[in-house]
Design a protein that fits this description.
Chains A, B: Pfam families: Phos_pyr_kin. Two copies of one chain form a homodimer. Chain A is globular. Chain A has nine helices and eleven strands. The first copy, chain A, has one domain (about 1-210, about 230-245, about 315-325): 3-Layer(aba) Sandwich (UDP-N-acetylmuramoyl-L-alanine:D-glutamate ligase), CATH 3.40.1190. In chain A, a hairpin with a 5-residue loop joins β9 and β10 (about 195-205). Chain A is α/β, with parallel strands linked by helices.
Amino acid sequence: MQLLGCDVAALNTVHFSNHTGYRQFKGTRSTAQEISDLYQGLCQSHLTDFDVMLSGYAPVLQHARPSQTLAHFFGVCSTLSLLNSPLTVNQPTVLDPVMGDQGRLYVNEDVVPAYKKIIHHADLILPNQFEAEVLSGIKITSLSTLAEAITAIHTTYSVPHVIITSVRISQFSSSPETTTDNLTVIGSTIKSDGSPRLFRVDVPALDCFFSGTGDMFAALTVARLREAVFAADSTLRSTKSWATVKVLASMHSVLERTLEARDVELRATASAEKTEPGLSEGEKQKREYLRRTKAAEVRVVRNARFLREPDVEFQAREWKKEDLPAGLQ
Amino acid sequence: MQLLGCDVAALNTVHFSNHTGYRQFKGTRSTAQEISDLYQGLCQSHLTDFDVMLSGYAPVLQHARPSQTLAHFFGVCSTLSLLNSPLTVNQPTVLDPVMGDQGRLYVNEDVVPAYKKIIHHADLILPNQFEAEVLSGIKITSLSTLAEAITAIHTTYSVPHVIITSVRISQFSSSPETTTDNLTVIGSTIKSDGSPRLFRVDVPALDCFFSGTGDMFAALTVARLREAVFAADSTLRSTKSWATVKVLASMHSVLERTLEARDVELRATASAEKTEPGLSEGEKQKREYLRRTKAAEVRVVRNARFLREPDVEFQAREWKKEDLPAGLQ
């Protein structure tokens, strides 16, 4: 976000030594009271002239109910939307309902109902496929169920804009696209009749598990939306697909270069690994997992130029009527 | 640092809502144990392949002695210097002995002896004029006492490189330079005979109090030194004045633009201030102080290009023998 010109005030919900993809970390979680105090600190010195609010990872708390954190978070959020700002009219509140991925929750179960309660405060939410299933209660196994889930999210939570950040349409059994391994991003804006206006962007999938790509998508989306709104005085709706295309181009370039750097690092560290003496089989496996996780760390900073000026182009396509199940056409 | 291509792992010593220049803030201080835990977290997942260690603000702790924080900090530091790294031979440890400014300590008094105990671990320290006085025990009122203080710091703490980040030579009563209001940065490297090899860079002073310029100087210096060492495989000594010149050029450009933006913001917010009803005189003064402090916030991110490519040039000059007091020539 800073690389795209945003001044950012971060209210950290955790203070961890590393991301949880390593399966081990040390550090502390902020309590709901601590987050609230930080925001009160900004308020008392009149430092809350923000344009956009973006929420992210808010995991289980040790000493407070998680719903309390989220309530405080959106206490912050509601206050923000009342403030004067060049974006007052279209001031977006962007919520990334971080709950899990690939069929698995990685926050406390209490976080789910907490999100369900506060999503109506958001202008745009950014669930992944699993989170969209959790929010809609609909298992996404086809284009029909995907469209149903999006419609359900719009109507259940009165949220006008949704971007589902990664769907593997090629894994749907009924899909004609089983040969290409793409990740598809689906954007949707609710129409006055309650039906969704949809667009999709397809991006080639890369064969690696990266941590933090959801955060990267959310951060870049906020920065690009802000840029578009400031530049053209246009609305969130008309700039969303433009922003998404830019975001995905940046991410694809950064992740491609990360893959190259990962391979270099894996080759460079392989020999060192082999000579490490006296490790049990379990220790060796753990060491290898840590080595591979570190090698796949997304190279954001050294690929900064691709955040500013991505060198690939993807296209946003309207998701056509015939793609939708009969009831939604 | 990120804008200059460094991947940075931050161990936060405080979690504050805003910098302390506002004279009010909310938030928490990390305990020594928390900092140590975070570093242990990095260690256990083999994430400690850093090139450089930079220490900064470590204020009084509520629940631990401050010396304990610094000890933990330099436990981290000593461990780092034992690690394999492309920079092993010249791996710099840079210490910004943050204690105070303009005659006033802004950390607990216990922090002073703690710094004095651990400075010998550092390759380069970055005190301001006041901190150099505290470390050397010599009040800097002239070019002679300045040179004496630097010599004392080299010999007392066995620290090979010192940069004094801001000296107002024009305020020295004996100075012939009373007409120009410059800030002078003095760099020094200890020679084999114990005397200092000195350089100086003069920069026009800007008429505004900025918060965070010490941190900015330290961060840019580390990034530029790293860049120079990687590029030329040269030593810390030969690249220090080059790095300092680049750092000061970036800072001057960013601060000049900050001044312009400050003036715009002060004009824009002046009318809003006047119409705020029902404030007492004391409240009005406080509100005005907060308004001016916020307006002077350093615009780092939106002036990113000046960090990468500063557009002014300052010169490093050797500080000549005749500038030094007789005993130091």
